[in-house]
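Re: beginner question about structure tokens

> Can someone show what the tokenized structure looks like for a real chain? I only ever see the sequence side.

Sure, here's an example I had lying around. Input first:
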Amino acid sequence: MKWKCFLFVILITALTANLTEAQLWKDNFKSKDSKWVEASGVWDIEDGTYKQTSVSDADNVFRAIFHSGWKLQDGTASVKIKLGPTQSNINTGCLLYRMVDDNNGYASCLHLLDKRVTIAKVIGGKYELEKSADIPLKSDVWYTLKVTLVDSHITVFVDGQEVLNHDDNSYHRGWVGVGVIRTHSPTYFDDISVSMQAPVSPHGKLAEVWGRLKKKR
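And the corresponding structure tokens:
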């Protein structure tokens, strides 16, 4: 009986360890990491923020992608965004994720003019709207934009409140980044954080661990 209890503890511990394997990466922009690749636009580090200063009336997209050795599949990505004030309020800040290259992936954006948050696909450098929700955005205010990814499901949060969810199978794994669309004033980014959870099947792990334990008997 004691042996069975001991075996059960080992089994649960091994399974839990596999289920909780994750990586965490953060950047507070105290200095520019060499892995940031500026795909387009003018980007600078200013007072501990990542600042984008290009100006465009068209639907031009300016992006900076973090070309790291890992790529986000399932997990969470978040960033703080501040949209600079303009007379026309044309300013949009985006969190990019599962970017397979500099021009293809997903984006969740805060749109100051339309006062909405969106989920879009980046295809060949162009943004294609998938879903949107109204939100009372203001200029010169920091907002925390966060996305969680589980398989094909995308959930978007602003300041901790769930605002959008969507399912799409176009991109499964890729880099993170930041970007802007149609901007008339500087856009600021800070405290980007990425938590990557390796997708693990509990049933598969249970059988694997149980098989190893039986061989040791």
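Each token stands for a local structural state, so reading them left to right follows the chain. The radius of gyration is 21 Å.
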